[in-house]
Design a protein that fits this description.
By secondary structure, the chain is mostly helical. Helices cover about 70% and strands about 0% of the residues. It has helices spanning about 10-15, 20-45, 55-85, 90-95, 100-105.
């Protein structure tokens, strides 16, 4: 995984329409939550071989918790993208900027 750091000054963010500002903040918050949960899943699955059976069961339970939470967060994110992007004028404005693969990823009504 490659992390990218992008600095966007507040003055630049204020130049875009409010609906885009709100969606941008929601989307970046969603991605941050996914990143954190993904790290929790990875850490909770580390070094299982060197643990006792009770420790393994405990760590596996913890991993299951994070996986279920991650699945729920993915569903919430999809609902947010569908409601705040696909069902608004934003999708019509930005659809032409997406690659073909990106366009195919946004199939309305898959959930």
């Amino acid at each position: 995984m490659k992390l990218l750091k992008i600095n966007i000054p507040k003055s630049k963010l204020e130049t875009i329409p409010e609906i885009e500002q709100v969606f941008f903040i929601q989307l970046t918050h969603f991605l941050n939550e996914l990143n954190t949960l993904q790290k929790c899943v990875i850490v909770s699955n580390n070094k299982l071989t060197s643990l006792t059976s009770i420790e393994k069961r405990s760590q596996i339970s913890q991993a299951h918790f994070f996986i279920r939470t991650l699945a729920g967060k993915l569903y919430e994110g999809w609902k947010m993208i569908r409601k705040d992007f696909l069902e608004t004028q934003l999708s019509r404005e930005y659809e032409n900027l997406l690659s073909q693969k990106g366009k195919e990823s946004f199939v309305i009504g898959t959930f």
